[in-house]
Amino acid sequence: MAATAPQPADRTPAERHSAVTEMPDELRADVRMLGELLGRVIAEDGGPDLLADVERLRKAVIAARRHEISVDEVAAMVAGWSIDRSVQIARSFTCYFHLVNLAEEHFRIRTLRSRDANEAMLPESLAQAVSELKHDLKPDELTRLISELEFRPVLTAHPTEARRRAIVTAIQRISVQLAEYNTPERGAHEREEAHRRLMEEIDLLWRTAQLRHTKLDPLDEVRTAMSAFDETLFRTVPRIYRSLDAALAEGTGTREPQARAFIRYGSWIGGDRDGNPNVTARVTREAVLIQAEHVLTALENAATRIGRTLTASALYGPPSGELRAALATASDDHPELISELGMRSPREPHRQWLLFLAARIAATRRRDLDLAYRSPDELLRDLRICQSSLVSTGATRQAYGEIQHLIWQVETFGFHLAELEVRQHSQVHAQALAEIKAGTPSERTEEVLATIRMIGWIQERFGVTACSRYVVSFTRSADDIAAVYELAEHALGGRAPLLDVVPLFESGEDLANSADVLTGMLLVPGVQRRIAANGRRLEVMLGYSDSAKELGPAAATLKLYDAQAELAAWARANDVRLTLFHGRGGALGRGGGPANRAVLAQAPGSVAGRFKVTEQGEVIFARYGHPAIALRHIEQVTNAVLLASTPSVEARTADAAARYRRLAERVASASESAYRSLTEAPGFPEWFGLVSPLEEIGSLRLGSRPARRGLGAPKSLDDLRAIPWVFSWAQTRVNLPGWYGLGSGLLSAANTTTPAEDPAPQDETGTAAQVEPGTAEASPVEGPGLDELRRAYREWPLFASLLDNAEMSLAKTDRQIASRYLALGGRQDFADQVLAEYDLTRKLVLAITGHSRLLESRRVLSLAVQLRDPYVDALSHLQLRALSALRAEEHLPDDERERLETLLLLSVNGVAAGLQNTG
User: Fold this and answer.
1) CA triplet 579, 580, 582: central angle to 5 degrees?
2) Fewer Cβ atoms within 10 Å of its own Cβ: the N or the C terminal residue of the chain?
3) pLDDT tens per residue, range 109-127
């Protein structure tokens, strides 16, 4: 492979040295200690020569970043090692990234706690939002907004978590020991023991296989998601409500709360069968039972804990008549249980009552129908009996303290934990109806009917809120919605379950036609019945992943915004309370990025106090893996939902959108043309398969869902799911789905002053010109429309979010490494086209944002990227070695191919850990 010419770098050697010195002392100490412990483990297990080779590669990639040696020299070093040695080195760097990620998480937690201790009001908090709202809204307007507030995160099993569950739990054990080691009040012996345990756990992490050897099944995915509930969500939710209540009025915990439970979790895990034949009616049934087991166990434990501590004596405050009557009734129905509780807690009626409720929750879990609750509403009624009684005795702190937390938890999670949502493709429904009418139902059609019957069973067991939403992928018309109601009648006749059928609009054409489809939906009898019963509520899902894969990131972002604005206007005209369900992924190429900024960038009127969004793959653990981080994430999103719903913010956003609409149309049109000229070119899918580890990523067994639609290599992007599309580009260090086409769109707008003028190249006296590959730094960018682009960036949240997300994606792109991947496909024209668009996009993003380098205004993120880049380079070189060999040799011996694939997949795992995103 020919040497690659040095390219202008965003991070010079001096800047990287500065990043190292700027690293906070606590973070530097943790990274150093964990790295040293890992080094000792590597040397003990693999010998000092292995550690020496790891160090050689580490120093070499840093030297290459400083231009002290060439990238070809690094590649030659890697090529000189045996495959087995390369595998060991890939393991080393992957483990290192797991530990660095952990150290950064601990530093973030310490920072959050420090800011919470030192700042009266955290920015982007609930307290800050309520403070602003009190100045912006009248008291009754604020009360109405709070009463209508909804945040609905939906956990999905989309396969974007590259780590095995065993690796995640090993990291969690290391996390516990690191926290122990860093706790200030620990004595010397305790710190020494924590240090020893750290070494033990890091040794186990090293010895744990990084790759899955068996494919996940859907119920494995359900159980994995439950760990986020067990460890974080159940305990975090009441803290959120308490924070909001404290912000609304003084005296939280001593008065009736003003904050209501506004969070409702949903889940597709075990319910999403679109393209996943492994999700069946039986799986859906087991999924909801697993969820119920976890939430009922949590509620039982909480009620038991509170009950045991609720030792308020009747001597100092007699219980209410209602509580005495309730205990008497319970004694009549369950004399032995109440007698035992009375003996254990004499003259402590509130304690007896809470422990009785705990026993009833346990019976609900066991399905002991004599004692079990029939619904969460019954439990809430009993909890409020206790709460009211405590208030009557003057024990308001006990009434509105832990008991209120338990009430909030029941209101949030019920007995089902998260609403299980079903998703299926519209074509499956159409085919099922055709087969039923012909009298020849296939096995798949029988499964569709079984799924609807299972929804009915879930509703009978856990209530309608446990499972009523049915999402229809690729909705093209109201007939696709009507089909589900018709199938429900075929499945159960007059006993059909209550269904809220949700259209999912994914393609550019479908987004443009979405309002017309909704108009047709209002004529569907099933829809009419539901909106009449639920206060004219309707939900619509917008797909970010497939629209971005089809149109490119810039055009998709802008068309999604237009669709939101049109749908919001449609809802107002039709007196419908519309909830937009945002199908966002974790990666920037799938609608990812900071969630709170995404909310503030929504079209005016489209939020209205309600925000529903998917939480996918590695995002679940990144956002909900630790209570402090989960608390901050939910506060930031809720802060944005509240502020985005105010008239002043809506007015400013609407004004900016109207002012820059023509500019947005120019950017969208030109960016889509540039994107399609690449992705729809003959031979592009095959080339993409050669330059990326697309085929091999399927071997990672990330989830139960197939990586593509159909069999064989993809012939077009339609055959490929969005996750492997984004994941594969991240591995090549190109990150193309996060920015490609944006540069061309910005160039068109920069070169245009009015819609009537055609963009044209200009001379050096003041306009932009096309940029050849590798020449992005040759001249400054100017143009008659450039000032308008800069104003749009300052004034329009959507445009700012678009450019900021692209800037993050560009910062994680490495042109020099990327060019080596692109060369593997044997199509220099494609490689040049990609690199030219990268140069153009980077140049224009910097010119519009006013930054001298990427992420200049995001110091913490920039610091992290600078420090990680060389180590990701090491894994990229190892991956390139494996990928080059696999692509070059068609007839490799089976054992050599297997070892190369192992090296490739280990490096994929490591790069994902280093970049901290997959799909």
Assistant:
1) 140
2) N
3) 998 888 877 667 889 999 9
